[in-house]
Amino acid sequence: MSEIKLTYAQLLETNNLIQQNADEIYWLCATRTVQESKIFPVSAYILFSYLNAYYRYPTLLRKIEARMSAEEIGDRARNQGLKIVAWCFPCFYLLGREMLINWGVIKPTDAFEDVAYVLDFWKRFQLSWHRNNGNLTNKQAGHRAQIMPEQRLQVFHADAYECRIGDPLHKAAQAFLATTAQYGFLVSCESRLTLHNYGPYKISDTREMLVRDFLELSESGVPWLDGVGQEIPYNNLTVAMIVEGCHINLLDDWGSFESTPELRSEHMVAVGLYSADTLSNGHLPVGMGSREELTATFLDLTARIKTATAKLWHVMANWTRDQQLDAGALTYYGVIKEFALIAGVYAMEDWMMIDERAERFRPLLNDEYGNLFLGELVGYISSPSQRMHPYTMMQHNDQPTKALSYYPYSMLADGHYTKSVGAMRPGSSNLPPKNDRYRTSQGVLTLAEYNRRSREFVPEVCAEKFRYLCADWVKYHYDLPLADELFKLDQKHSRLLKDKGAALTRPEIEALRGGA
Amino acid sequence: MSKLYTDTDKYGYQSTFALVEAYNSAMKDLVRKRFAESGRDWKSFVAGDSYDTITKDDIANIEARLLALGYRFEPSAMSSAAERPNAYKDSGLHNENFSFEHPTAPTAPPDPQGRELRGAGDNVVTRDKNLIGIARYVRTSDKVLQYLTNGVPENTIAIVDDSGGTLTAPILEKFTGVLCAGGTTRSHLAILTREYGIPCLMNARLSGVKEGDRLEIECSAKAKSADDYQSGVEAPANVWRI
Asked: Which of A111, A378, A463, B174 has the fewest CB atoms in 10 Å of its CB?
């Protein structure tokens, strides 16, 4: 765990990390989406989540890091897929700070060690997660998310089945993608936090691959999937989708993509299906034994997910507003709860409760104020704390604003600052308590057992022997037995690459596919 | 009364929206009062006393004072107005003769093909040809439940004001087309209609389109990209009544 001390260098770095997130707020929020919902008070719950994040993240991240470093969590996430944390994690937290500054509840000089620590954790996690492309964020990478190593991509490439619009596999895969995306929006209370894309990855001069995660499908960390998701046999599913005639030109820090031309179903020409979680050794194939098996698997999963969608819709449509507010806020706030699952320190009272310090503000959060204040904070960038001197030209909109407040350097001279929001306080929720059942790749577990296994589990690729064998090492050592061993970890369950080792090139993979 | 750190602001700005300014000013007044009452320095107050002395009741009083002046909130979620009709304006969601009347909706008399322009929107995906179908408003969970129970009528072009993907989740794939009065081509509803292959216009500005009208949607028009939004480029796709 990094030790935070107030120094000039520390302050410079903290403000830089604040600004890196600030630059992306307007771009993502003002130009990429406008969100409304007749079921959920979305803006109000988003603001609520920001407050909960501000009061709780520092304590909970320190609790996580007492067992596992941010860098090691990044290693696990790179190998197992993880929710969108790139922008959400620091910005939810920092926007909570911004709200409280505008209410006068805190000063821009408060909780410095907390903020510096949270951003330092984020930086170390991101650098580890992005290790294969050396960037801090997708934005830094030119809006690309090339997270995965060659050995994983080779398996996805090799084992993907060819499909064409109108054929049974294509129809089944397309229906699965649409149905599961829709279920994901519902599970995450009208947000996209359970949907995540990686890539693009180059397959050939005319083909690219998008790796698409659909997370928290079954009985998982949220209570509203109890009695809804138990018939879905996987908590996370990953679709490796190869497209042709379509360039993925943008993959942002929300895990959303854009393409030229707009992606249409006919662009999908090959597909594979996998599952991975915090207890699996990488991505395990699902229904990948044959084209027919994969088609049947997509159809079966689609039917199960449609049933779950209808059940969940009825549950949510009957919630009270307070329950909607809690569920949405906890979904947002819980965007990093997988960190605790990976480290084996997950607790319901940590991640599924609204801290009493945030709960105080619930009566402020009516629909109209929620929409307008959120609009000012992330769209207009017009709250008083965000206004700057008139010579300023903010990135993207040229206005005299910045989305997030810095820590003033005067703190170094006058010592007028506070260190922390203090210890976590009790929380509450209007939602029913969650059943003690968690779907994992090792079966349905109680939380105590899930935590115990997480603490003991080290994915093979994260063991000391392999952990530091990166793409730059493979480039110069692919002919060594150790490189073969590394690649065989991912090839263990591959239909075409089992035990092939490290020497194969992309054209050789394509030749092996033989039309798949 | 105490002075807050942000009370001195060279640029002297207020919030853009009056309601936000009213609420945030009331919050600052509350903090000034409680800080003064505490008799403590800021370091002791901010992460200590303030947690217990700035209470949920205090916050509820801020809202109560505004409502006592006759102010009523604009609702977004159905539950908000349903649970607190005295705090929210009537959303009009249950008006059976409803039609969107957006001031910026383009309208024109029938063209030589008999198509009467009744609006326009942002096309999600460029299709090979335009879509023809029957307009049906889907604005409440009651309507969704009705369609879920009895089935969505054939050739339904759903007109919705919800750019999210949750309200229509159980029935979306049954729609022939979608006109959404809000959102952008990046909104959740846009993402879902793209996945389902359903023609869709987001940010639709409509006028005089009634339940049961026969519509033609210009989904063969250029799709509106994120760059178009960022640079302010308009790329409208038309909606005609035929």
From this structure: A463
